[in-house]
């Protein structure tokens, strides 16, 4: 499938609620595995797919199979088998995101190493989808706590990994206990003989799909990544643009809304930037590309679909402001630079929860992506000073300056000052709107939004030991507690992995029967709050809100508190907008 004639998700027969969720998540075009898998799965066909991690497999089976779920039937209709607890959680969370507009939808991840009680409660309440590891699925089948009689479809994700881990006999036995009429989708990076035998035994006339991950990244492109940490992404981006010697840049984001928002913010900071997205008509799109070619535009902020076919020689840099959703998109994105044998630079922003995709990209392309250090205040000052010196040299070499030399000599005589003082004053006048020495850049005490968590807290009820007590915190209430089997480590893991909050900046956590409280750094960016609002722990939505005066009191068992937003606030706090006290 060429870039120019690639189909869009809107061309597929997915249900309207799923298409709406896809658009909100920033998806525009399916990856190759999705484009080939969704139509037959929607038709009820079995699918045998060969595809690597990072090619978009989760969406390839989730979207069509969720389209066929009967929401009125609170019984497992879709079973996904995954080799590891991490993958099971990841698949369950992806499905929850896709199903955000499916009313009363429930997905439950079940895996070993987690207490059985919350899994039993979840199954008893009723779920539409179960995602689990083979061993724990077998445990529930033997207990009789998992019923498969209403099952419509089974997915084997990363089947070769389940073989390597010794689960293949469990997989075979589980499949033999499913209804004969169920649909099966099997995905595997390789197809060893044992996997092929499973497919022959349990799949009926499957559609076979093979996707080879792109490895055609241009050798002349230097690839680097910045691990997203305490600095706000926009501040990090402008620092990078300050220091990099670029001619033209394409910045990739996931959503059409983000293209216009980021373009406006960069324009406000003095850059010649414009958006390029699928909502623009062809004439506007061509005008933007023509401006990029002519040099009247230096930065384009684009989505994957809108950037298709761009071939502009002066594009020296591609910046992945939002990490792509599959490896194929990454290869297409960075291919916009390094054209026709030229050198190019590709920079990727990677949040802690996105490290898995970074690894997938490196495996798929066969090339390492090296970490980069964010430019400091000193780096920016050095770059601005060097640019200013070059401007002086260029003016001396290319302009007739006799009149100005005479004017300066007259001023020196009239005011009895040195040439260095006059030159310094002129330099200030020339650069006062863009000082050569920039304002101090806060290196943020908010490493709070940075590294991977250290999952070292196994206590259930006692507050976690506070670290970095000089950081002001706010107490929040989350609607999961002892009744759901939650432990502090579960909350810490979700906050650190999914919201990028360093675990050492997460304050006291207290677990109660029906809810918990957690102290988080004050003044967090809105994007972090938006991420928190979408978090699930043990398959339960956190529904985070600011704690009330009685939350944290052992005698308090009030109903769930207000959620973010209903009081009319526009910043995700659910009340009067608050401005961060520090810059991230």
UniProtKB/TrEMBL annotation:
It is found in: Cytoplasm. The keyword Nucleotide-binding applies. It catalyses: ATP + H2O = ADP + phosphate + H(+). Its main location: cytoplasm. Residues 38-209 form the Helicase ATP-binding domain. GO terms for molecular function: ATP binding; ATP hydrolysis activity; RNA helicase activity; RNA strand annealing activity. InterPro entries: CsdA_RRM, DbpA/CsdA_RNA-bd_dom, DEAD/DEAH_box_helicase_dom, DEAD/DEAH_RhlB, DEAD_box_RNA_helicases, DeaD_dimer, DEAD_helicase_DeaD, Helicase_ATP-bd. Pfam families: DbpA, DEAD, DeaD_dimer, Helicase_C. This is ATP-dependent RNA helicase DeaD. It comes from Halothiobacillus diazotrophicus.
């Amino acid at each position: 499938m060429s870039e120019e004639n690639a189909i869009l998700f809107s061309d597929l027969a997915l249900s309207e609620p799923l298409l709406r969720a896809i658009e909100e998540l920033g998806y525009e075009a399916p990856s190759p595995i999705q484009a080939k898998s969704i139509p037959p799965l929607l038709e009820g066909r079995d699918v045998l797919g060969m595809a690597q991690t990072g090619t978009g497999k989760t969406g390839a089976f989730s979207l069509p199979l969720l389209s066929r779920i009967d929401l009125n039937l609170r019984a497992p209709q879709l079973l996904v088998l995954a080799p590891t607890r991490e993958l099971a959680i990841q698949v369950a969370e992806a499905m929850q995101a896709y199903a955000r507009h499916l009313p009363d939808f429930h997905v439950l991840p079940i895996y070993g190493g987690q207490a059985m009680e919350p899994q039993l409660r979840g199954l008893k309440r009723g779920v539409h989808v179960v995602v689990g590891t083979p061993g724990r699925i077998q445990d529930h089948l033997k207990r009789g706590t998992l019923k498969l009689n209403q099952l419509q479809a089974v997915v084997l994700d990363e089947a070769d990994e389940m073989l390597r881990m010794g689960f293949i006999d469990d997989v075979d036995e589980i499949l033999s206990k499913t209804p004969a009429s169920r649909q099966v989708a099997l995905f595997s990076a390789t197809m060893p003989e044992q996997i092929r035998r499973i497919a022959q035994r349990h799949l009926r006339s499957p559609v076979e799909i093979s996707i080879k991950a792109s490895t055609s990244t241009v050798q002349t492109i230097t690839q680097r990544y910045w691990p997203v940490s305490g600095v706000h992404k926009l501040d990090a981006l402008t620092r990078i643009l300050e220091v990099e010697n670029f001619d033209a840049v394409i910045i990739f984001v996931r959503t059409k809304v983000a293209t216009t928002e980021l373009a406006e913010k960069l324009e406000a900071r003095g850059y010649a930037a414009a958006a390029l997205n699928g909502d623009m008509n062809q004439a506007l799109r061509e005008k933007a590309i023509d401006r990029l070619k002519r040099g009247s535009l230096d930065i384009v902020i684009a989505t994957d679909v809108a950037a298709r076919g761009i071939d502009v020689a002066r594009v020296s840099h591609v910046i992945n402001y939002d990490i792509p959703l599959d490896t194929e998109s990454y290869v297409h994105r960075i291919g916009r630079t390094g054209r026709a044998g030229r050198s190019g630079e590709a920079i990727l922003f990677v949040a802690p929860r996105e490290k898995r995709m970074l690894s997938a990209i490196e495996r798929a392309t066969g090339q390492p992506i090296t970490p980069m250090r964010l430019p400091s205040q000193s780096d920016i000052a050095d770059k601005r000073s060097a640019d200013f010196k070059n401007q002086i040299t260029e003016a001396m070499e290319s302009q007739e300056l006799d009149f100005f030399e005479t004017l300066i000599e007259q001023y020196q005589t009239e005011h009895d000052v040195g040439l260095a003082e006059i030159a310094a004053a002129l330099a200030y006048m020339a650069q006062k709107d863009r000082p050569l020495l920039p304002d101090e850049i806060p290196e943020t005490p908010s490493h709070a939004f940075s590294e991977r968590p250290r999952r070292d807290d196994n206590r259930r009820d006692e507050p976690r030991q506070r670290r970095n007590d000089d950081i002001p915190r706010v107490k929040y209430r989350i609607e999961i507690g002892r009744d759901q089997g939650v432990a502090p480590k579960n909350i810490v893991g979700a906050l650190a992995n999914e919201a990028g909050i360093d675990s050492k900046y997460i304050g006291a956590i207290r677990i109660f029967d029906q809810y918990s409280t957690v102290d988080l750094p004050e003044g967090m960016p809105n994007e972090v709050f938006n991420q928190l609002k979408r978090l699930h722990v043990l398959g339960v939505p956190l529904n985070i809100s600011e704690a009330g005066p009685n939350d944290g009191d052992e005698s308090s068992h009030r109903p769930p508190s207000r959620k973010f937003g209903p009081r009319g606030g526009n910043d995700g706090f659910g009340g009067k907008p608050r401005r961060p006290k520090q810059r991230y």
